[in-house]
Amino acid sequence: MMSTPYMFHPVSDMPYPVDQLVLTPDDIDLSRSPLAGHLRAETFVLGAFNPGLLRLQNGNLLMMVRIAEALREPIVDGHVHTIRWDEVTQTYGLDAWPLDQANTADPRKFTLAGGQWKVMALTSLSWLLPVELSPDGTRVLTLHYDRAIAPAYSFQCYGVEDARISRVGERWLMTTCSVSPERHSTTLYSSPNGLDWTFEGIVLDHQNKDMLIFEGLIDGYYWAQTRPLGALYFAYPPGSDWRAGPSINLAVSKDALFWKPFERPGLRPPSGTLIMERMGGGTPPILTPQGWLTLWHGVEPHEVVGIYRTYWSLLDTHDPSRVLHTEITPLLEANAELTRPIEHQMYLRDVVFTTGIVDSGDHYIVASGEADLACRITHIPKRVFVFE
Length: 388
What we know:
By secondary structure, the protein is mainly β. The protein has one domain (6-385): Glycosyl hydrolase domain, family 43 (Tachylectin-2, Chain A, 5 Propeller). It has one helix at residues 336-339; strands at 6-7, 18-23, 43-55, 61-71, 75-76, 79-86, 91-98, 102-103, 109-112, 119-122, 124-133, 140-143, 159-168, 171-179, 184-191, 198-204, 212-213, 222-226, 249-253, 259-261, 278-281, 286-288, 291-300, 307-315, 323-332, 352-359, 363-370, 374-381.
């Protein structure tokens, strides 16, 4: 029997047994960056965050960390600059935009004036760094700079972002967001061991920030959560349980390369509350005795960026469009105590962005980006996700 879709229950198990930052910008050696030696300008690590997560065959964990590398002085001579990969020259360079045409209120990006639609550029370029952790995720063992994933195609010229990693059968599948003026697409990589990745191609051609492949097939098909974005959303009828806006949709595929949107909706933002005015996927859904467990983020409007929190849902084992339970008491919130030692590097607050999960016996190990700045590891007991 299907439960009420949205329930308020207190989470009595917090604080969790382990909840700590394991990687910060100071841990990154930019002399080993893919950008090293390409630019006549100093760069710094704006953030080392939003890690995909998997367990290697040796028992250690591996985070695929987004490194946002930014210009130390982006504004020079009345212009704001961006870093861009050029596929033709196979090098990185700088583009300059007149400062009087740019809105730089958000430290992560700037919007450009003029035109009939929103146009923006990034203050950093992102690449992915594999970081090996101890089996419990609390200690960094190795930073695999030699296996970093950097832009390689014109549709990645502004960076490769936000890895999400799923184990399906005998291989790992990793979705990433590739950013360029051509398109804002979802790209796929595969690996037999979690360390050596092969580029498989573009799998979603529209703007989509959070594609999460289910960790397992359903009736022989791959399933995924998607979150297509747009500038226009049509209103639900008055009195509806749902709010118009970004939601978590579903798609199916025979081969993980060609995806068909599923006819029924997935998770939608509820009406009557602003804490989830918009929402998006977090961790790849994993199968539990009660159904597919998925962690996702909800955003409450606040200042420029908003307040990001992590929530969770259980989806039907055979039909993930059936939402069995959603808990809208936050599972994770931003933790100022964790970021206090790196307070001097903070440029955002109230943001936790959960991106990875691994089964670890009686608990899950959950990886998140904290404040778009650092990597956070949290151990969450499995009993938190049980409902009656």
